[in-house]
Amino acid sequence: MDEAEKKKMFDVDSAALLVKELRANFGSGKTKSYGWRVSQMKNIIKMIEDHENDFVEALRSDLSKPELESFVFEIAMLKASCKLALKELKSWMKPERVKTSLAAFPSSAEIMSEPLGVVLVISAWNYPLLLSLDPVLGAIAAGNAVVLKPSEIAPATSSLLKKLLGEYLDSSAIRVVEGAVPETSALLEQKWDKIFYTGNGRVGRIVMAAAAKHLTPVLLELGGKCPVVVDSGINLKVATRRIIAGKWGCNNGQACISPDYIITTKEYAPKLVDSLKTELESFYGKDPLETKDLSRIVNASHFARLSKLLDEDKVSDKIVHGGQRDKAQLKIGPTILLDVPHDSLIMNEEIFGPLLPILTVDKVEESFEFINSRTKALAAYIFTNNRKLKEEFVRAVSAGGLVINDTTLHLAVPTLPFGGVGESGLGSYHGKFSFDAFSHKKAVLYRTFAGDAPARYPPYTQGNLKLLKALMEGSVFGIIRALFGW
Amino acid sequence: MESPKSLEKDLKELRESFRCGKTKEAAWRMRQLKGLSTLLKEKEEGIFDALRRDMGKHKAEAYRDEIGTLIKSINYALANLKGWMSAKKAPLPLGAFPTTAEVVSEPLGVVLIISTWNFPIGLSLEPLIGALAAGNTVVIKPSELTPTCSSLLANTIPIYLDNSAVKIIEGDASVGEQLLRHKWDKILFTGSARVGRMVMLAAAEHLTPVTLELGGKCPAVVDCIPNSRDRTMAMKRIVVGKYGTCAGQACIAIDYILVEKKNAAALVEALTFRIKSMFGDNPRASNSLARIVNRHHFLRLKNLLVDPKVQACVVYGGSMDENTLFVEPTILLDPPHDADIMTEEIFGPLLPIITLNSIEESIEFINLKPKAPAAYIFTKNESLMKRMISETSSGSLAINDCITQFAADTLPFGGVGESGFGRYHGKFSFHTFSHEKGILRRSFLTEFWFRFPPWNNNKLLLLRAAYIFDYIAIVLIVLGLKKS
After folding, report:
1. pLDDT of A101
2. d(Cα B378, Cα A448) in Å, to the nearest integer?
3. Under a CB-based contact definition with an 8 Å cutoff, are residues B271 and B38 in contact?
4. Which residues of chain B lie closer than 8 angstroms to A472, CB-CB?
5. Are residues A109 and B410, on separate chains, in Cβ contact within 8 Å?
6. Nearest to residue B438, comparing CAs of A424, A210, A152, A137?
7. B149, B218, B246, B251: which one is catalytic?
8. Which residue of chain A is at minimal alpha-carbon distance from B283?
9. A42 close to B (CB below 8 A)
10. pLDDT over 70, % of chain B
11. How high is the pLDDT of residue B251?
12. Which A positions 425-444 lie with beta carbon below 8 A of chain B?
C-alpha cells in the first residue's frame, strides 16, 4: 500500500476525527432548526427525483433488482417517507403537554423532543437505498448529525450514495463512510449518541457490545424466520399471489420480512402447492431463470449458502417445484419443498432466498405451537377466514409485526411501528416512530412558587407523615388540608 | 443466597409461568398490583423500620419518597391498565379501506430488575409495577448494601404476590453476575455507569433490550429572585432537594449550584438559614437527615474534602462522624473546577456553589459536563428558562423546583447520554416492559392486480398512482383514459 492509499484508509483515528467534527457542528445548533431539517429532507427528495434512473441502475447492478421493485420498494417508499416527515415535522417537534396530578399542584408539564446528537446508521445490502436513507431521514427529522455506513455488499449503491449525499446534503452534519469490516469496526469504537443497525443477529450482538462501552442506545433491525400459516377455506388464488409477492417479489426472498416458510394442514398442502406452481408460472413464466422480474442472489457466498441448504441430505428429495440453479448468473429458481425435517439446516437458519419450505400439521392450530417453539421473527403471517383463528394468532404469536391475509405490506404503513422483538431486534421506526427513535424525550416540569405542601419538608414529624399520606392517597379533604398547611 | 442450581430452577419456573399464559390475563395483573398495594399497607411499619435501619430515613421521608409514591403509582396503574392493554387503532388513509391496522402491547416475557440502595424499596417496586402491569414474570435483585430492605422484600413478596411469577433473588455482585449470564427478555437497571456498561455488555450476548437508569451531576441554576416569599420557597425546595432527599444520595438530587457572583453571598446566607431551620442547630441530632449508606461511601465523601484547596472552600458544615456515618449538610463556595468534587457525581450532602460573572454562562458550564439525569433552574426570567430548556440536555428538567418530577405519573423518567437510556413511570413503565406489535388486517376482497409481476409500464404507472393513494388517476389509467 503506498502512502496515498494509507492516507485514504479510514481507521480509528479517522473515525474519531469524524465524530469530533460532527459533534462540534452539532454543538453549533444548526441541525436543531426546523428550517435546516426541512431543507435536508427536501434535498433528499430532489436527489431521488433527479437521479431515479441512476438508483435503478445501481440496484440493477448490485442485485439485478427489477425496475418495478426498485421503484416500489425503495424509491417510492423513501419519497413517501420524506413527504410524510415534511408534512408532519412541525407537529412532531411540538412539545406534548401532559396533565399533572394534584400531588404536584400547581404545575404544568410537557414532554419535549430533543435530538440525541451524533448518530450512526449502519445499513444492509438487500434494500440498500431504502435501509440507508429511511433511518437517515429519521435522524435528520429529529435534528441529529448523522454518519451513514452503507453495505459494501451493494457497492454500486454505496458509492452512489456517497457521491450524491455529498452533493445534495449538508456535509457538515451528514456524512457517508464506505467500507467493510475494518471501517465499520473503526466507527463502532467511537462514542455515538445512538446507533441504528439493520442486518443479522451475529453482527447485531457485536454492535450492541460496542455500544455498551459508551452507554450508547441502539436500535437493531434484525431478521428471523417469518412463518406463514395457511388455513383452508380461503381465497386460495389471492392468498397464493400475495405469498408469492411477499416472497419472490421482494428481492427474491432476500428480505427480512419475506415469508420464510409455510405451515399448513396435511390436507390442504397439495392444493397450496398446485396453486403456487400455477401462479409462479403466470408471474415468472415457464423458465424462471430467464425472467427479468426476479432479483438475482446477491453474491457467490450467499449462492453457496443457499445451495448448501438445498443439497442437505433428506432435504434435496423434498423439492416439489423448482430447484434450478445457474451459478454463473447467481440465479436460483423459485423452489418449494414439502415437509423437510424440522432439524434440517433450511429450517434452522433464516433462508433469505427463493426457497420456500412447506411444513404440514394435522390441525392448523398446531402451527402456533411450532412457531412459538422457535425464536421470534420480524413478522408472522396468517391466511384464514376463521375469526377465532385470527384472534388466537394475534394473541398467541409474538413477532415484530403481524399481517392477516397478506404479507409484508405492514412495511408500508407509517402509523405502525416497524421493528423486531427478541432475536429479531429491539426498537422500531417508520413514520413518527423514526422521529422518536432518534430523539430524547425530555420531561419538563414547570412549577410556580405559590402553594406547596409544607408536609414535604423537614423537620419531619408524625404530623408530616399524616399529611403526606392524605396528600398522596388523593383524599380531597386531606389534600386541601395539606395544601393550605392546616 | 441462591445456588446456581436453584437459580436455574427459579428461572425455569418463571418461564413456565409465562408460557402458560396466566400473566397475560388482566385479572392476574390486577391481582398482583392489588397484592403489592396490600403489602405496602400491611407491612408499612416493617418497611419504615427497614429504611430507618438501612438508611436512617425518617418515616415521613420514607413515605414521601418510597411508600407514598409506590401507592400512587399502583393506583395509577390499576386505573389505567385496561386502557394500556387495549389495542390502539393505527390510522390508515381512506383509500386503504377495508384494510385495518392496530398496535397491540404484549409482555416481553421474563424480565430482570436490578435495584439499588438509595431508594431500596421504591427502586425495586416501581419497575415491578410496570413489569406486572405489562404481564411479565419478574426477578428483582435488590441491593445488598441495604440488607434489611432486601430481606423484607424477599420475605414479603412471596406472601402477597404470585410466587411462581415474581421472585426476589438476594445477593451481592457475584449473584448479579450470575443473573446476567442468563437470557432475559428485558433488563431494567438502576445504578452506576460502571455497572451499567457491564449490564449492557451482558445483555448484548442475548440481544436483550435494556433500560439503564444511571447518574450524573444534576446542576441547579439559581437566578436572582426578587420577591422574598418566592425566594423563601426556592430555598426550601433547594435545601430539601439536596439534603432532604436521602442526604443527597439520589440520582436526581441537586449536585451543584450555579449562581451569579453578586448573588452568591446572599444565597449562602439563605441556604444556611434554611438548613438550620430544617435540620436544627445540631444536625447530628436531627432525625430528618438520612445517613450515608456505608463506610465505603462515607470515605469517598470524606476524600472529596481532603484536598486543602477544596477544604478551604467550605463555608458551612463540613463535620463528619465515621461511627454514625453522619455527614453534615455542607456548602462549598467555588471549589476548583477540576477537583473531584466537581468532576464526579457527589451523591452526598456536600453542595458546591460555583459563581459566574453572568447567569447566562450557566448554559455553557452545564454543557461542558456529561448529560445528567436532571437539571434545575430557579428563575422568573422567561428567556433564561427557554434557553435552559432548549440549549441544555438532561433526562428531565424542572423549573423552580426539584425532584418533584419523579412523582409525576405522566412524565417519563429516565436519562440521556451518560445518565442512561430508556424510561419508566406511569404508562412508560407499561411500555418499557412491552413489545408493541403492529397488526395489519387485509381482506381477500380488494386487490391491486397491478401489484404482481409480470411487470410492464402500465403497472408501473398504476403503482406510482397507488402509492400516493391517487385513486382517480388509477381509475383513469385502468380505463385507458390517462397516459404516462
Report:
1. 72
2. 10
3. no
4. 63-64, 68-69, 71-72
5. yes
6. A424
7. B251
8. A459
9. no
10. 93
11. 97
12. 425-428, 440-444
Question: Are B199 and B122 within 8 A, CB to CB?
Answer: no
Cross-strand pairs, B317: none
B314 to each of A414, B341, B344, how far by Cα in Å? Answer: 57, 12, 18
CB contacts of B438 in chain A (<8 Å) are 400-402, 410, 413, 416-418
Closest C-alpha to A254, from A399, A354, A124, A345: A354
- B457–chain A Cβ distance below 8 A for any pair: no
CB B370 within 8 A of CB B415: no
pTM confidence score: 0.95
C-alpha dist (Å) from residue B87 to B81, B151, B380: 12, 39, 43
Is B298 touching A (CB cutoff 8 A)? no
ipTM value: 0.94
Q: In what order do the strands lie in the sheet with B396-399?
A: A96-98, A107-115, A439-447, B396-399, B374-378, B219-222, B256-260, B350-356, B330-333, B314-316
List, as ranges, residues 44-103 from B with C-beta within 8 Å of A.
58-61, 63-64, 68-69, 71-72, 75, 90-92, 101, 103
Check CB contact under 8 Å for A249 and B452: yes
Neighbours of A55 (CB within 10 A): 23
Say if residue A459 is preceded by a cis peptide, omega within 30 of 0: yes
Q: Tell me the residue type at B75.
A: N
Interatomic CA distance for residues B144 and A266, integer angstroms = 57
Task: Check: CB of residue A364 under 8 Å from CB of residue A208.
Answer: no
Considering only alpha carbons, which residue of chain B is nearest residue A408? B440
Task: State yes or no: is B213 an active-site residue.
Answer: yes
CB-CB contact of A148 with A178 (8 Å): no
Catalytic residues of A: 221, 256
Where would I find the H helices in A28-122?
A: 34-50, 52-63, 67-69, 77-93
Q: For strands A355-361 and A218-221, give the pairing.
A: unpaired
SS3 of B307-376: CHHHHCCEEECCCEECCCCEECCEEEECCCCCCHHHHCCCCCCEEEEEEECCCCHHHHHHHCCCCCCEEE
Contact assignment for A98 to B410 by CB distance below 8 Å: yes
Judge contact between B203 and B179, C-beta under 8 A.
Answer: no
Question: Taking CA A67 as the corner, what is the angle to CA A63 and CA A73, rounded to the nearest 5 degrees?
Answer: 80
Contact criterion met (CB < 8 Å) for A413 and B92: yes
User: For residue A146, how many C-alpha atoms fall within 13 Å in the half-sphere facing its CB?
Assistant: 32
Question: Looking at the partner chain, which of B193, B236, B442 has a beta carbon nearest the beta carbon of A409?
Answer: B442
How confident is the model over A162-197, as pLDDT tens digits? Answer: 999 999 999 999 999 999 999 999 999 999 999 999
Helix axes A155-168, A34-50, angle to 10 degrees: 130
**Total beta-carbon pairs less than 8 A apart between chain A and chain B:** 287
Does B407 contact A at CB distance below 8 Å? yes
Which pLDDT score, from 0 to 100, does residue A457 have? 81
H or E element at residue B137: strand B137-141
Q: Copy the grid coordinates of residue B109.
A: 416475557
Rg (CA), chain A: 27
Q: Within an 8 Å CB–CB cutoff, is residue B104 touching chain A?
A: yes
Give the helix/strand (H/E) hosting B301.
helix B295-304
Does residue A166 belong to the interface with chain B, where contact is any CB pair within 8 Å? no
pLDDT at res. A450: 74
Looking at residue B203, the DSSP 8-state letter turns out to be H
Query: What is the CB neighbour count within 10 angstroms for residue A297?
Result: 29
Confidence of residue B213 (pLDDT cuts 50, 70, 90): very high
Query: What is the distance in angstroms between the Cα of A3 and the nearest Cα belonging to chain B?
Result: 38
pLDDT band at B477 (very low <50, low <70, confident <90, very high): low
